[in-house]
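User: I'll paste a sequence; please echo it back and then give the predicted structure.

Assistant: Echoing your sequence first, then the prediction.
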Amino acid sequence: MNEQNQPHHVALLGATGAVGTEVLRTLIAMPTVARITVLTRRPLSAVDDAKIVEHIVDPLDPKTYANLVAGHDTAICTLGVGAASSVSKEEFLRVDRDAVIAFGQTCKTHGIKHFQLLSSVGVSPTSRVFYLRSKGELENALRGLEFARLSLFHPSNILTPENRYGLGQAAVLAIWPHLNFVLIGPLRHLRGIKVGILGSAIAKNTTASVPGAGPMISVLEWDDFHQLAQT
């Protein structure tokens, strides 16, 4: 399955977030990406390009975007609550799990072959940690949709140029970049990842060549992000 030289049409949900913005910037620069349909709650401000077709939708209501996803090769979802501790568990599940499952179901119904999800390291549907358990439930639901290709991105802490979410993120941004020397061997996947590298990796994975012809599920971690970003 070599898609590298084929014109690509991509549907993106979550483009206004830190990762989504970097995904969008890289997609714009890729010659094989012909069109990017951005589904967003609010107008884009950070990125503008002739490839972008923007639609204001309600991510929690598939009826507002169902007719917009047909005719795309790949769907990318970076939608999520930025600071999980700032909302109730019910609201978190509504946005981070249920809305994304609905997006996946809609994409599958309308013929999208490749679905890419920004998830998290350590996810498991049986985890005792609420955040990781909900992400694991989401991934299980997407696996059940049987996309021809499903790419699950598992970053640890995402390192942004600025502090977006208060003291907790400030501590992560100050400390985590200095831990790489101890996060080695089986712990490499826990290294913090710069948002620009992660966004570039997700975008470039859209047209990356993959072996085989059957359904493929890939879980991508720290080393994969750097390898993809460098292609």
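The CA atoms of residues 2 and 95 lie 34 Å apart. The helical segments are 18-29, 89-109, 130-144, 167-175, 195-205, 222-229.
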